[in-house]
Specification:
By secondary structure, the chain is an alpha+beta fold. 18% of the residues lie in helices and 27% in strands. Strands 1, 2, 3, 4 and 5 form a 5-stranded antiparallel β-sheet that branches. The two termini are 19 Å apart.
């Protein structure tokens, strides 16, 4: 579980848009950039090269 205060200040490093926390997949997702950043051991990895590109269907479901 991520600290809600941390989630309030984190943004996508690519688009600067807000992130959506997906606890089930342990990711922070950005609709604007289409990237999903991993959360490892409770720590968000906010590096573009570590993010995965989401499918169009995933993005539309955010």
């Amino acid at each position: 579980m991520l600290d809600p205060n941390l989630l309030d200040i984190l943004v996508c490093p690519v688009s600067k848009a807000p992130l959506i926390h997906d606890e089930k997949q342990a990711e922070l997702k950005c609709k604007a950039s289409g990237l999903a950043y991993p959360v490892r051991d409770g720590i968000p990895v906010m590096l573009e090269e570590q993010a995965r590109t989401m499918s169009d269907e995933e993005i539309s479901n955010l």
